[in-house]
Specification:
It contains eleven helices and no strands. By secondary structure, it is mainly alpha-helical.
């Protein structure tokens, strides 16, 4: 770890800075990581239950600061009550707030969902557009949500950067950036577009199953022979 910052109230220590090496080193590490995760998690899937782009869009908005498990408990009844974009656009806000309250930040999420669906009805005939340029103009939709929809619902290139992806790309040494857009740009520059979506999903799966935030399971990690953050010495556990 780099030098400790002075301790003070409310002051955090700077994060450990990984030596990435040259651009060629980063590219090689990224390619190897993608290949190994593809082997470990051949069936990369989005954990949010949905049918079609609209349901995925709404579920992804609900997933902010909330677990996928909790969202999946809420959405079956929600999608039955609001079957299309017009139904969401015309929803009574207090009623929708009550339906999604358990996902947290329900007032802002209600505002985003209603605003987003009104825009879909007004500008896109009630259909979710399959273009990043259009998706990010919708209320409550940023690049992460747009990339999830593009990659999962439409099968188009999309690399979604959530907290797991942010953590893993830093730990593995795929980027120095903490800004999601910069992480997306750097990682995508080293991976073919057709692999972006699955790679993102596999990083998320690996983050949940192995490379946890508090206690990463380095001893059983298939990246431990080259991951610069690994607590296991290279070569001591199978490469």
């Amino acid at each position: 770890m780099a030098g400790d910052a002075p301790r003070g109230r409310g002051r955090k220590l700077p994060p450990k800075r990984i030596k990435l090496g040259t651009k060629s080193d980063v590219r090689a590490r990224t390619v190897l990581t993608e290949e190994r995760l593809a082997s470990a998690y051949p069936h990369a899937e989005c954990a949010l239950m949905h049918r079609g782009p609209l349901q995925l869009l709404v579920a992804t908005i609900l997933s902010a600061q909330c677990t996928d498990e909790r969202v999946n408990m809420v959405t079956p009844g929600l999608f039955k009550r609001y079957p299309d974009a017009r139904a969401f656009a015309e929803a009574d806000a207090p009623e929708l707030e009550l339906a999604i309250q358990s996902t947290g930040f329900f007032r802002q999420k209600t505002k985003s969902i209603i605003g987003c669906c009104r825009a879909l009805v007004d500008r896109f005939g009630g259909e979710v557009p399959p273009r990043m340029e259009d998706l990010v103009t919708l209320p409550g939709v940023g690049r992460k949500t747009a990339n999830v929809v593009l990659g999962v619902a439409f099968g188009l290139p999309g690399f979604a950067v959530d907290t797991h992806v942010t953590r893993l790309t830093a730990r593995i040494g795929l980027t120095h950036h903490s800004d999601p857009e910069k992480i997306e740009a750097e990682v995508c520059a080293n991976v073919p577009p057709e692999k972006w979506s699955d790679f993102g999903m596999r990083l998320i799966m690996h983050g949940r199953l192995v490379c946890a935030a508090r206690k990463p399971l380095c001893a059983v990690c298939l990246l431990n022979d080259y991951c610069p953050s690994s607590s296991v010495l290279p070569g001591t556990v199978g490469a």
